[in-house]
Amino acid sequence: MLTDSRNCMVDEALTILSVLASNQEAKVAIVKASTIPVLIDLLRTGIPRNKENAAAILLSLCKRDPENLACVSRLGAVVPLTELAKDGTERANRKATSLLGHIRRLQQH
């Protein structure tokens, strides 16, 4: 649903994932389903609302999870997150800035 080229269900799928990402078992399942690269792609190419939701989900997946955080960094999320922090909605700015801070702290260790 996240890669639907007609964009019909992307918004709904992201909304559902954002709720699920707060549950530890769901987080594991989301990551296992190789969703992180798709979310990063949405940061680059999605409409503003989808970028905002993708950043929120990535932040949830990366909180207290250095492995997911390293994956997000390795897959090149820093550039689209930086752009989102500058040009995104207020919520997108907060989520992107927070995630960038987590990535910086991980890289310093």
Automatic annotation (TrEMBL):
Matching entries from Pfam families are given as: Arm
Cross-referenced InterPro entries, in alphabetical order? ARM-like, ARM-type_fold, Armadillo
Key word Repeat present in the record?
Answer: yes
Q: Which domain of life is it from?
A: Eukaryota
UniProt keywords (A-Z) are:
Repeat, Ubl conjugation pathway
User: What's the protein called, per UniProt?
Assistant: Uncharacterized protein
